[in-house]
Amino acid sequence: MISKPRRLSPAAILFFFYKDIKNLFIPAAVFAFATFQQARFWTITGLVSLFLLVVVGDVVKYMTFSYQFFDQEILVRKGIFVKKVNHIPYDRIQNVTANQWFFLRPFKLEELEIETAGHSDGPEVSLAAVSVDLKDELNNYRKQFKTTETVVENEETTLSGQSYAITWRELIKFSLTSPAFLSGLLVVLAIYGKVQHSISAQMYAAAAQEFSHLGWVIVVVGMLLIVLAFYLVSVFVLIARYYHFHLTMENNQFEMQYGFFKTKKTSISQSRIQAVVVKQTLLRRMLNIASVKLVIISNSKKEDTEKDIIVMPVIETVKLTGFMHKFFPNIPVEKGQALAANSGTYYYDLRNAIIFSLVTDLIIGLFIFKISVILVLVVIVISAIIWIVPAYLNARRAAVAVMDDKYVFLQNNHLTSKNSYFVPKNSIQLLERRQSIWLGRKKFAHLRLSCRSGIGERNLKVKYLPQAQVDRVVEWYKKSSN
After folding, report:
1. What residue spans of 269-316 are helical by DSSP H?
2. Cα–Cα dist 130/62, whole Å
3. Which of 23-32, 230-239, 357-366 has the lowest mean pLDDT?
């Protein structure tokens, strides 16, 4: 069966325009900021010309873009002077993601991103503004021509019909405890770093004069209000992003749908999962909530595939065991309880942290001792917090244990986040046991476990564990998986 060549909806021109403006906004803003006062006419002329070029280019891109379904592949054609023809066999498609902006819902249109096994710079093809029925049509072709995949041991049972949706209470807790607003501040500072050379000395002088009239108290209050504004915006953004997050399982495929302004639908096959991660920051641990993520195999460098896939952004810890049993029934979650930390683990981690803290105090103290003794004391306190608190958490949360013949449990700490990994044996690419001469005398060792993640690898490490714990995992890994 061969379909006729199809074009995108005219709404695709808006998609192209949005992406072009998004890429050109900062360079155009810097150009306008730097030249407007000296050459207003040419600045306006340049911006208008750029706008017209973008519009014309997007219309041409729409007119020359087409796609067509064949028996074993989808064919995508684009380009004027350089014709590009993409042949995408159905059995090479790894994932199809649907993104639907709120203004497209009345027209039943969405964007499809097709990710293949041989492309690493984002989706192989993005079909902007196509019918919402196209994803189902494409998936039907994929089912007909799907090649036999290697069946991993944790897919012995076909799972279908399971579903879970986050509650408003969980979503609010998740959004309020996110440090995402700091990223917004960093973006603003980065933009300022690019345009600061374009700001005249007169503007700096005028700003300084205004601040001197306002007084330092008002300035500090103003800065706090700016931080609060970024925080509130980040909370709103997270609520909009994960609005009505709904997870279902159909034929061993995780199906996720979420988003308010932009509804995203994506699927992840269990065959791509390398590990399951339960993550808790210190604040979220106090509020008894956690996130569940997946370490997966992927060939795309774009967006979420660079990181762990969030399969459940937030869930109350009392529901976590039931959730794991429902979606990962082969993982013996009850056997993943971390062992009590050994006193030797505390000793080594805290010893190293204290040494680094003292070295930091000494280096900084040499420069500020003559300025203020109180400042030195402040540095000592801050240094102790920065070094010793994470070290204590590293020791408290370091654990590794064999769960059964198929799974190992590994727990570690990153800054203040507790990470619990459930890793199947057949996903482990490398298991490394490290032990210095001095640690050998004390019967302690390190363990590094490596599995595939994205287009690279993920190294999971735990340090200063009793040698017996590490050796049990090594012996478990040496045994045949059969």
Report:
1. 282-286
2. 12
3. 23-32
CB atoms within 10 A of CB 81: 5
- CA dihedral 450→452→456→457, nearest 10 degrees, is -10
Instruction: Specify whether 226 is located in the same domain as 86.
Output: no
299 with 255, same domain: the answer is yes
Is 42 a member of any domain?
yes
Picking from 152, 154, 151, the residue whose alpha carbon sits closest to that of residue 328 is 154
Q: What are phi and psi of 300, to 5 degrees?
A: -110, 135
Q: Are residue 265 and residue 335 in the same domain, yes or no?
A: yes
Chain mean position to CA 297: 14
Euclidean distance between CA atoms 379 and 365, whole angstroms: 8
- Residue 11, SS3? coil
Q: What is the rounded CA–CA span in Å between residue 315 and residue 174?
A: 9
Which stretch of DSSP H or E encloses residue 383? helix 373-397
- Two tokens at 310? 């969030």
Q: Is the pLDDT of residue 355 over 90?
A: yes
Q: How many CB atoms lie within 10 A of CB 28?
A: 16
Take residue 113 and report the two structure tokens written for it.
Answer: 């991103």
Residues 138 and 74 sit within 8 Å (Cβ to Cβ): yes
How many domains does the structure of the chain reveal?
A: 4
With 0.85 as the threshold, say if the pTM is over it.
Answer: no
Query: Which of 221, 229, 144, 141 minimizes the C-alpha distance to 181?
Result: 229
Q: What's the average model confidence in pLDDT over 456-474? A: 91
Residues 255 and 372 in one domain: no
Domain carrying residue 384: 343-396
In the block, tokens 């879970």 appear at: 164
CATH assignment at residue 131: 2.30.29
Positive or negative CA dihedral for 110, 114, 115, 119? negative
Find residue 279's DSSP bridge partners. 291, 419
**To 5 degrees, how large is the angle CA 311–CA 161–CA 96?**
50
- Do 440 and 369 lie in a common domain? no
Q: Residues 290, 180: contact at Cβ < 8 Å?
A: no
At 393 the pLDDT is 93
